[in-house]
Amino acid sequence: MASREQFSSNTGFVMAAAGSAIGLGNIWGFPTQTASNGGAAFVLAYFVLAFCLAYPALMAELIIGRHARANVVTALRGISTGPATYKLGSFVGYYGVIVASLILSFYAIIAGWMLTYLLESVTTMLGWVEAGLWLTEFGFERNLISMAVFMLLTMAIIAKGVAGGIEKWSTRLMPMLLVLLLVLIVYVLMQEGAAEGLRVYLLPDISQISPGLIVSAMGQAFFSLSLGVGTMLIYGSYLGEKESLPKLGAAVTLVDAGIAFIAGLLIIPAIYVAKQYGADIFTDSGDLIAGPDLIFQVLPVLFDSMGGVGLWVAFAFFLLMSIASLTSSISMLEVPVSLAAEETSASRFQATLLIGSVIFIFSTVILMNFDSLFGFVIDLTTVYSQPLLGVVMCLFVGWIWHRNNLLQEIQKGHADIEKTLFWKIWPAYVKFFCPVLILTAFIQSVI
Ligand code: PFF
């Protein structure tokens, strides 16, 4: 245990955790949910929930992780107080590991599509028309190969470990992501039609605030902060004792919500610019287009109509999406790999190879039964499992773990924490409010 790896700096941790948080959920999910849920009304609900509900749950995971310095299963067992809670800890831990792996199995498929469209912009520049057609046509072989390539990239980073893999690559890729995002926003906002998109995005339609909107915003906040499945717990376990967890957690929440908001300034105006070029941007039921059609049909209309520069814009856009996916997927893979490497005699490399292969098989099964499994796995993991697991993490911290131990852990790196507003509010908050609110919203969504 003495040689357990750590992030080499605060910044390294924030980059890695923000890298996990910022993904397709921010750049694709958040803007499109906003557009179909009353514009700025959704943004408002999202920000409130991100800070009042997701941030406390994130803190629960970071604190458990740093205290236990172990994978999610061992960590939850470690803070249990008797045989029943030990069993519960094992069950929840393993459930989290399975959910993280299943999320990766569908995420790798979508990320693979980003890679194919990225490559297509290059093949088109080179004039390779046939290759471009193959890359953009929905087919089993294309899906399988692109998913496999993406999984290999993810595995290559995870095999290198915490500082040399996760931290190094997150620190390299996150600034690139920000630059690409900003460049694309400036470009799109200069196009005709962008102002209409901005209006749709930023003007609140208060009449749309409903229980359904709150549930969607909560699900989005949990998915976006990678909560419930042990990702943030394992990243917390690589943090040193000198760091203030409440501050780091707040930084990650702020960056994640900020990037989601900024991504909205790109995606929604881009949809309305595409409309100028003749793209059909509404679904049959009159909603703004949101699913894969948005990314793979509407936006390409925009890129195609821009002439030569459109290829570069497409390249930048799909590079942005690929980077965002990769820094998230490594955090998903780290959950099962850390468990296997810590609990068996396998080396990190062997654990990565084994688990990466198993997830590759999951993804292949999804691809073979795409119509029945793809949407099902997404709902099972993100709509149902993530919020429920988030509740259990809060219950562990609020009810099972002794308050004094909790205080001791959180005092590391923040000696005067007892005097802060955070400590006055947070323990009661994770104990009562978070579970009740999350469960209420959850039941709403199931009904
Ligand atoms: N937060 C990622 C996104 O917004 O795309 C998705 C995610 C990452 C979910 C890691 C779960 C996870 F464990």
Task: Tell me about this structure.
This protein is mainly alpha-helical and 447 residues long. The chain has one domain: Hydantoin permease, CATH 1.10.4160.10. The chain is 81% helix and 0% strand. It is built from 18 helices and no strands. Helix 1 crosses helix 8, helix 3 packs across helix 16 and helix 8 runs antiparallel to helix 14. The termini are far apart. The relative contact order is 0.19. Bound molecules: 4-fluoro-L-phenylalanine (PFF). The site of 4-fluoro-L-phenylalanine has 16 residues, from helix 1, helix 2, helix 5, helix 10 and helix 14. The site of 4-fluoro-L-phenylalanine (PFF) has 16 residues, from helix 1, helix 2, helix 5, helix 10 and helix 14. It is a multi-pass membrane protein. This is Sodium-dependent transporter. It comes from Oceanicoccus sagamiensis.
